[in-house]
Queue: 2 jobs
Job 1
Amino acid sequence: MFTFNGQVSQHRIIPILEKLSEQFDLKDVFRDCTDDASLVQALHDWLKRTQFSVFTNQNIPIATRAEITREIGLLGLDTRAGVGLDENNLPDLMWCAVPAGDFLYGSDKKRDPYAYRTELPQKTLNVDYAYQVSVYPITTAQFQAFVQSDYSDMRWWADFPAEYQPHAVNTDENPSLLAKALNLPATLISWYQAVAFCRWLTVRYQGANIITADQMIRLPTDVEWEKAARGTDGRVYPYGDDAEADFANMSGTDLGDVCPVGLFADGVSPYGTHDMSGNVFEWCTANTEDISAGQILRGGSYYMSEEWARCAYRYERMPAQQLKDSGFRVVLSDIRNHPIAP
């Protein structure tokens, strides 16, 4: 209980502080607080001092950890690299390098009992260029920056069907985008919106000299996504061959909802990407001939089973669909390696 000037604080931070106090000795952290604002500041200072370790602390049950970190996101206190915005109010992305070379694509029935016929046979593919993939899916904070910028600029929506120029934010199912925890992956995003975000961010990053004129931000291809998720050895999940409910947000994890990015340190891919299994499906570019036709979602989601969270699982949907368990992550590559016209 925190009392200031004889009044018990009713700030929304209090339940989270109580939960944190069950896990950590925080008496000295908040001892000198004199009001709600100083409580919030003290929490943020503690999070930074501890390098936001609460997000991946395996001693805290995952349901409790998800609740705490979601509230941290709602308070705007999740300033981990790769999650929010930079000083220019642009998405602050972190990257994992994926080298050129061969990898095993698809499924091996002997290794993966869930293998679908369309994933067989497993084969060696060569990606003959290096690229970088974002550590996390694009977050709510990062997609908001696009929505609150020049979202309707026709440069971002060119070549899409007329009814999706632009594709409106889904306010029926998502009436309060601004009230969502900023560290959740952005959801209810169509393929068109994801591509438009990439076009916008490419121009903004080039203008800020974050990337060169020869580089671009885009969605991963189906093949690029799978290599980034599993590495070269054909593993079934980003972390190995056996599904682990503590390594990803799947139905067996029992969270029942999207959780903040980066909670599953044991579930990272060989290249260091987080959340490529579970939490939210991620849009890829698979159909390069007709962008109004079906595109591919990858990675599974919080309410789907381990079968759907495998690296080889592919899920086709129409590009205008805005799904509650689907978002996207992005790739940074040379323009010459772009699969379709930007």
Job 2
Amino acid sequence: MVNGSTYFVILLFVLFIQFGASNKSSAQQDGLMEATEAGEAHSQFLIGQIFNSGDKPSDKRQAIKWFRKAASQGHVDAMFHLGVMLETGQGTAKDIKEATRWYLAAAKGGNPDAMYTVSKMYGNGAGISKNSLQAHHWYDKAIKEWDSHPKLGEAIGNSILRHDR
């Protein structure tokens, strides 16, 4: 079980790695927290990630809160993660309609995981009208995006193959 102070330590660790811990003074660390509270989308996304890794339902509700804040500011990774949580009912009631909206926004914003998810949704008619042309369109975009990052694309492709069996 993780308490609030542990989350704060984890958050600082993640932020240090993200922004370079070696050059951060205490004032700069405080500035990162202030940025999160002031609405900096990437910091909000990171907090959402931390809460999403928790085991309690309240952790998942907090993750949704932070993902929603970041997603509302255009953070495409937060949009995707929010979509996953809404689709699966983690920390909230399942809402495929809202999940689809966030997946589409993330896909249009360039998130390849969302592009792939949208392609599957169009292909299966899940949460959206079945449309094989759109399914192929989004699948091709996801592949092209993953191809632009070969290591990432290979890892994600292998993961997809394992999950689609």
